[in-house]
Amino acid sequence: MPEHWLRSQVRRAALLGRASEGSPIHTLILLFTLGDDVSPEAALLALGDAVPGLLEIGFLEASGGRVRSRFQICPIGDGWIACDFHHRQGEEVEDYVMGIGPSSILLGGITPPVKGRALELACGVGWLAGALARRGMEVIATDLNARAIELARFTARLAGTEGIDFRYGDGLSPVAGETFDLIVANPPYVQSPGGTMIYKEAPSGDSVCARLLREIPAHLSPGGIAVVLINWTHAGEDDWSDGPLSWVPPAGLRRWLFQSDCSSPVDYAWTWIANDLRFKDEQAAEQEVRRWLAHYQEAGVRRVSGGFMVLQKCAPGEEWTRTESRVAESVGDDAGEDILRVLAAESWLATSPDLLGSRFKVPSGIIAEARMGLRAGGWSRDTIRLTSPARLSYDGQVDENLLRLLAIVREGGTAVDMVQEISSRPEFAALPDLEERIVSLVRELVSHGLLVPSDG
Buried-most residue among 228, 334, 382, 400 (CB within 10 A)? Predict the structure, then answer.
């Protein structure tokens, strides 16, 4: 899907030739993609008996003998979502409702496929809530923006999705006293000096990410999982994990902090200001950048990071913490499976299992790619890159021994077979720590979900 459709932006020229001028499809494009007004006759021809109802609920409005849509309808997957037209962002309104952006797609991809009760915080137009409901979960979706809640209800009707309990309110206040098997959130995480855009900015001094992560554990059922997209600030290159981990005490939790990007303050500020219609004037943009930089300087901020936090409620004594810093540009839409394997793997490793004698399964979808270089004498292999099925839990360079271990396990063998195979080679026979090296390989593969215990 075109990225500009995800962000509710589309240039008129991109739609030329998509439909015959004057046809019902052309009218629908004018109304719901471009935001143009059309004649009542054209609207009736395109929408038929739906026009009076859409006017009654305020989705369409009539003025001066013309009909206009107040909201944009965008394609996503095999469905549709309703959101604000992009130009409304520049109208100095607080309740602008954006469409589906890259962060929404990322959260959808890393959401684990579990069963039970689900909560989506800061649901926006409710796209993910709808996907969870169609998966068979009992879903509650909340947002502080009342306009977003109404559009989310309409989006659910567009998709024919029933049973979602949409609630208005701040943070976890609408679900006080309730617990869930899954909590997901794409909150207003932008690390700015404070602003008025509900969908992305928090008031000055309010870290929405920190507040949500502090409160979420109390709302997780035993074994329940939370996945929250976050941004945060820090002073240097090496202290990036300190802040987010301090927000969530480790007691009774398995914690996985994933850093996917890290920017300088000026680069981070410009990322958010450059495409904000409120600052399309050069002078206004410069003033806003200066405001952000002054805020960072006063707070001692030298880096701004982005990523996500995974939490799982566990029994005392079963806690663990994992931090990982790696670019995740091409995460698959089934990355939630990777997360489930990591959670299970880290917990299994904490039981001190017999890594040599245990039997494992190899998940489908693991890929190894070799990079070749042409030199004197012909081609030679430079590196081998191994990726997990969804490219989230592992994406890195490996050697032939690790690949061979995966193959042995896939064929029904164990790490013991790997030890015997390697020790039969003269160049390795005298290694005193061969078993320890193989155990280390097994541990590495298990920790990234590339080997799954057969009983797991």
Answer: 228
Among residues 286, 308, 329, the one where a domain terminates is 329
If you write DSSP's letter for every residue of 312-334 in order, what string do you get? Answer: EE--TT--EEEEEE---TT--TT
CATH of the domain at 260: 3.40.50.150
In a domain, 132, yes or no: yes
pLDDT tens over the chain, length 456 residues: 444 445 556 677 777 678 888 899 999 999 999 999 999 999 999 999 999 999 998 999 999 999 999 999 988 887 899 999 988 988 888 999 999 988 999 999 999 999 999 999 999 999 999 999 999 999 999 999 999 999 999 999 989 999 999 999 999 999 999 999 999 999 999 999 988 788 887 777 778 999 999 999 999 999 999 999 999 999 988 899 999 999 999 999 999 999 999 999 999 999 999 988 899 999 999 999 999 999 999 999 999 999 999 999 999 999 999 999 988 777 888 999 999 999 999 999 999 999 999 999 999 999 999 999 999 889 998 999 999 999 999 999 998 888 999 999 999 999 999 888 888 877 666 778 888 989 999 999 999 999 999 864
Q: What is the Cα–Cα distance from 181 to 45, expressed in whole angstroms?
A: 46
51 near 43, Cβ under 8 Å? yes
81 occurs within a structural domain: no
161 and 286 fall within a common domain: yes
SS3 for 205-229 is CCCHHHHHHHHHHHHEEEEEEEEEE
324 and 367 fall within a common domain: no
Domain that holds residue 254: 90-329
Q: How many domains does the chain have?
A: 3
Whether residues 392 and 319 fall in one domain: no
Residues 383 and 295 in one domain: no
The Cβ of residue 416 has, within 10 Å, a number of other Cβ atoms equal to 15
Shared domain check, 211 and 161: yes
pTM for this entry? 0.92
Instruction: Quote the CA–CA distance of 60 and 42 in Å, as a whole number.
Output: 13
